[in-house]
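pls design
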């Protein structure tokens, strides 16, 4: 992915938080020279100081899990907020429109989970993560036998992360005045995506030196 220096993010905690918040991702593989994509809920595991693993599951009828090989990376794209940016929001308007956004690309080696208990845990953890955000979380009414039968229709997998690219294109190349005008414009927009991008920009931490932060590879 093309990433200008001003838009590159390497802070581990910042990227971890992004993946957790925007966990409905696009998984891309290659089969016989052609790309293949699925859209899946993905979990991030932080099992070590710098080691990262993704976990997810897909329908067994989706043949993408058959593409996984130990010698070829898969790509998992986490999409954040995005919006059209009009020059009318800038103080210096002698410029052109653009599109601002945040995205993280995670590469790694994928493998199918063969253990039934591990697959069940992936599905359980995915459900708990999203139900916990609701005021009235759903409780599983199914018996163990019914759950096991339904799990037979899905395939679990993990992705051992090998590298990551994070790009937050948020107008960092503009003046402080232009950035402030952009945020005001996004906040006033009737588009929900624009409003979400404004909240995201305002929530970003100040950049830190590499000596002070843990970095993704």
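designed seq:
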């Amino acid at each position: 992915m093309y990433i200008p220096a001003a838009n590159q993010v390497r802070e581990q905690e910042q990227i971890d938080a992004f993946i957790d918040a925007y966990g409905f991702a696009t998984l891309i593989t290659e089969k016989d020279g052609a790309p293949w994509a699925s859209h899946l809920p993905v979990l991030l595991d932080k099992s070590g100081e710098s080691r990262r693993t993704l976990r997810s599951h897909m329908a067994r009828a989706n043949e993408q899990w058959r593409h996984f090989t130990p010698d070829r990376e898969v790509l998992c794209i986490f999409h954040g907020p995005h919006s059209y940016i009009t020059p009318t929001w800038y103080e210096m308007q002698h410029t052109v429109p653009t599109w601002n956004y945040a995205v993280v690309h995670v590469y790694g080696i994928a493998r199918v989970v063969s253990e039934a208990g591990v697959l069940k845990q992936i599905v359980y953890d995915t459900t708990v993560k999203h139900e916990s955000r609701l005021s009235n979380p759903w409780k599983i009414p199914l018996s163990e036998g019914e759950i096991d039968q339904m799990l037979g229709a899905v395939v679990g997998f993990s992705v051992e992360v090998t590298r990551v690219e994070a790009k937050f294109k948020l107008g960092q190349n503009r003046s402080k005045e232009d950035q402030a005008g952009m945020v005001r414009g996004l906040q006033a927009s009737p588009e929900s995506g624009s409003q979400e991008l404004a909240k995201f920009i305002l929530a970003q931490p100040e950049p830190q030196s590499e000596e002070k932060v843990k970095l993704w590879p």
